[in-house]
Write a structure and sequence with these properties.
By secondary structure, this protein is an alpha/beta fold. It contains 17 helices and eleven strands. The strands form two sheets. An eight-stranded mixed sheet has the order 9-10-5-4-1-2-3-11, with helices on both faces. α12 crosses α14 and α16 (about 345-375) runs parallel beside α17 (about 400-415). It is globular and about 65 Å long. Bound molecules: S-adenosylmethionine. S-adenosylmethionine binds near residues 59, 135 and 188.
C-alpha cells in the first residue's frame, strides 16, 4: 500500500507569526503546589492505564513511519527474500532462507511507550526480520499489544509494562545485553514529566548500539492544534494536563537540540517542524497540526555532559503491573530458536552459516550412505565388485567442509561400482 505522506503543508514560522498577531490565548498557569500535585497524578501511570481501558482503538496504525524515518528500514531482508510468498517468509525455514538469500542480520528495535503497537505493528509487517523490545507505562496497553500479535510476530517481540523514567527494562539492563539498532520515541516524551526528559534520552541511548544505533523522535510541537484548543490545566509554558489526567507537553526544535546535547546524543537529522494541514469537510475548517521530528545517534564513545539526574540510574523496582515477560512463549520451537539464535544480531549470521552448512553436510552424508546401501547387486562372478561400504567419517569436531568431502568421496565410490 502506498502511504501518502505529508510533512510540510505550511510554513511553521509564518503560522506562528500569524498566531501571535491574532493573539493566541492559553489557559493560566497553575500555581506551584497545585501544579506539583497534578503533575504527580498525571505521570503516576494510572491515568494512561485508565485511558486504554476506556478508549477503544484511539490511535490509527502509523503506517507512515518508515517513509518518515528511512532508518527504520535497517536490516530489511533482500529483495529476493521479500519476493517469497509471505507464508514462506514467516515459516520455520525463514532463518536458513535469509542466510542463503544474502539478507542482513535481523535488526533489533526498541519501542519506548509502545501503547498497543500503533507504530510497532506496521513496522513488523513491513520487515519480517525485525525483532523488537517494547515497553509502556500502561499494563493494559501492553496486554492489548500482546493480544493483537499473531504467533509469528509474538515470537519476535518482547514487551512489558515498564516506566522508562526508572531506567532500562531488563532486556537491556545487563551490560552484555544485545543493544538495539534503532529506537522509536513517538508521541511518548510529551507524556513524560519534562524534568525527566534528559534522563529518558540518556536511558534510551544506553539501549542503542554505540556508534550506529539511532533514535527516531516525533512528537507534538508548540502551537499544534491540540495545544491551541486546550482548555486544560497548564503546568508550564507548554505543559498541560488533559481532562483525562494524562500529560501533554509541546516541544520546540530548540528543546530537542538542547535535550540531545544534554543526553550526549549526536544529531543525525536536525530537529525540524513538520506541518500537516487537515480539512474538516463537514465544518469547512482547516486543522493545523505541528510536530517536531529528528533523528539522533548514540556516539561511539559516550561523553555525557554532567547532569545530576543521569540516565544510568536503574530503579530496583521499575516494573509496572504484571512484570511482563516474553511475548509469544507459546510460539513454535523453531520460531523460539530463531529468536534465541538471533539474540545477538551480529552473531546470528555467524552462527546461521555454519549451522546451515552442518545440516547440509549431514544430509549429504546420509544420502551417500543410503545410496551406497541401495547400490545394485553385483553380477555373479564379478569378483572385483562389492568392495565394503566405506564412509570415511571425519572426527566429530571436523569442519562441515570435511564432512562434505567425506560424503562426496563415498558417493563417488558408490557411483563407480
Ligand atoms: C500518546 S501515547 C503514544 C503511544 C505510541 N507510541 C503510539 O505511537 O501510538 C503515549 C504513550 O506513552 C506511554 N507512557 C507515558 N509515560 C511513560 C513512561 N514513563 N514510560 C513508558 N511509557 C510511558 C503511555 O502509556 C502511552 O501509551
Amino acid at each position: 500500500m502506498t502511504v501518502k505522506f505529508h510533512e510540510n503543508d505550511f510554513s511553521y514560522v509564518e503560522f506562528v507569526e500569524e498566531l501571535s498577531k491574532e493573539g493566541e490565548v492559553l489557559p493560566p498557569l497553575l500555581d506551584g503546589t497545585a501544579a506539583a500535585r497534578v503533575l504527580a497524578s498525571a505521570t503516576g501511570g494510572t491515568k494512561w492505564d485508565s485511558f486504554y481501558k476506556r478508549e477503544s482503538d484511539p490511535y490509527k496504525p502509523r503506517r507512515y513511519l518508515s517513509a518518515e524515518f528511512p532508518e527504520l528500514l535497517v536490516g530489511l531482508p533482500s529483495p529476493a527474500f521479500l519476493a517469497l510468498p509471505t507464508w514462506v517468509q514467516r515459516s520455520g525455514a525463514a532463518g536458513v532462507l535469509r542466510t542463503a538469500l544474502g539478507c542482513p542480520p535481523p535488526p533489533l528495535l526498541f519501542d519506548v511507550g509502545c501503547g498497543y503497537g500503533s507504530a510497532l505493528v506496521p513496522l513488523l509487517k513491513e520487515n519480517p526480520s525485525l525483532r523488537a523490545v517494547a515497553c509502556d507505562l500502561s499494563p493494559t496497553a501492553v496486554a492489548q499489544l500482546r493480544a493483537g500479535l499473531d504467533t509469528f510476530d509474538a515470537a519476535r517481540v518482547r514487551c512489558r509494562p515498564w516506566d522508562i523514567t526508572h531506567g532500562l527494562p531488563p532486556e537491556f539492563a545487563a551490560a552484555e545485553s544485545e543493544r538495539a539498532d534503532v529506537a522509536i520515541l513517538v508521541f511518548t516524551l510529551s507524556a513524560v514529566d519534562p524534568a525527566a526528559h534528559v534522563r529518558v534520552l540518556r536511558t534510551i541511548k544506553q539501549a542503542l548500539k554505540p556508534g550506529s544505533g539511532v533514535l527516531c523522535f516525533r512528537d507534538r510541537a508548540e502551537h499544534d492544534l491540540t495545544m491551541r484548543r486546550s482548555r486544560n490545566q497548564r503546568l508550564g509554558a507548554a505543559t498541560f494536563v488533559r481532562e483525562d489526567g494524562t500529560l501533554a507537553h509541546y516541544f520546540t526544535v530548540e528543546d530537542l537540540e538542547r535535550l540531545a546535547a544534554a543526553a550526549g546524543l549526536e544529531v543525525l537529522e536536525k530537529p525540524r517542524y513538520c506541518t500537516v494541514k487537515l480539512h474538516n469537510r463537514r465544518k469547512g475548517t482547516a486543522m493545523h497540526r505541528c510536530f517536531v521530528h529528528c533523528v539522533l545517534r548514540r556516539p561511539l564513545a559516550d561523553d555525557e555532559p554532567g547532569d545530576p539526574a543521569a540516565g544510568r540510574t536503574r530503579a530496583a523496582a521499575s516494573v509496572v503491573g504484571d512484570g511482563g515477560g516474553v511475548v509469544g512463549s507459546g510460539g513454535t520451537s523453531l520460531q523460539a530458536a530463531s529468536v534465541a539464535a538471533s539474540s545477538d544480531a551480529g552473531s546470528a549470521v555467524v552462527q546461521a552459516g555454519p549451522l546451515w552448512a552442518w545440516r547440509l553436510s549431514f544430509a549429504a552424508a546420509g544420502i551417500a550412505v543410503v545410496a551406497a546401501l541401495l547400490r545394485p547387486p553385483v553380477a555373479a562372478g564379478d569378483a572385483g565388485a562389492r568392495r565394503p561400504l566405506f564412509f570415511p567419517a571425519p572426527s566429530l569436531g571436523a569442519p562441515p567442509a570435511a564432512w562434505f568431502a567425506a560424503a562426496a568421496r563415498t558417493l563417488g565410490a558408490g557411483a563407480g561400482r
